[in-house]
Amino acid sequence: MHTSPVIPVMVINNLEHAAPLANALVEGGLKVLEITLRTPVALDAIKQIKAEVPNAIVGAGTIINVDTLNQAIDAGSEFLVSPGVTDSLIDAALASGTPILPGVATPGEVMKLMEKGINAMKFFPAEAAGGVPMLKSIGGPLPQVTFCPTGGVSPSNAEQYLALKNVACVGGSWMAPANLVDAENWDEIKQRAEQAASLKA
Predict the structure, then answer these.
(1) Other beta carbons within 10 Å of 88
(2) What is the rounded CA–CA span in Å between residue 195 and residue 130?
(3) Measured between alpha carbons, how far is residue 68 from residues 89, 120, 125, 131 in Å?
(4) 151 assigned to some structural domain
(5) How many domains does the chain have?
(6) 17 within domain boundaries
(7) What does the pLDDT average to over 171-191?
(8) pTM of this structure
(9) pLDDT tens digits for 10-66?
(10) Catalytic site residue from 34, 47, 50, 116
């Protein structure tokens, strides 16, 4: 979470785009990549990026149950990201030894994860769940928790999140929108990654 200020949330529909897209983001300064398991090629994309982009730290997003968790680990994921939490998912993640960034939106969910020894979480959906004011409020009674806000985070508000003491990084997809990926405009994606990487020293 402290490697880059922004974690790109990547939706890969065409396996041929996986390595070039990852290269563009890494060359732009964003080494931590979240591949969402929303497409049929996502697991193969993780394997390909692991093999062809050695400087990338590759993880899987949209982990929603134990099956997707196991598939992601088998594909070589170095970390896992979930939109929410269930007991079975968290227990399986902890047993696997693979770091997980579980999604939370309320203080109660945060406290439940703290009981399991987890102090790093994804705040999702960030903007819809109260945004910067909500994270400030959670930080009062629960200062030991660090967040990665995702969902509605953009260049216009990313720095407001990153300025919070309890935010280590943010997640977003604006560096690699579908139209640029489909057009294979890797130079523009690299430039967007460079801008994102400069958001916070």
Answers:
(1) 11
(2) 26
(3) 10, 21, 20, 28
(4) yes
(5) 1
(6) yes
(7) 98
(8) 0.96
(9) 999 999 999 999 999 999 999 999 999 999 999 999 999 999 999 999 999 999 999
(10) 34
